[in-house]
Amino acid sequence: MKLDSVPPNVSASESATPNSDLSPQLEIKLTSNPEIALKLTPEPVDCSMSSTSDLCPEPKGLTQKHWAIFASTFVTIFLAEIGDKTQIAVLLMTAESHNPWIVFAGAGSALVATSLLGVLLGRWLASRIDPRTLERLAGGILLGISAILLWEVIS
Question: If I label 65, which of 28, 91, 137, 151 is the partner at 20 to 30 A Cα–Cα?
Answer without folding.
Answer: 137
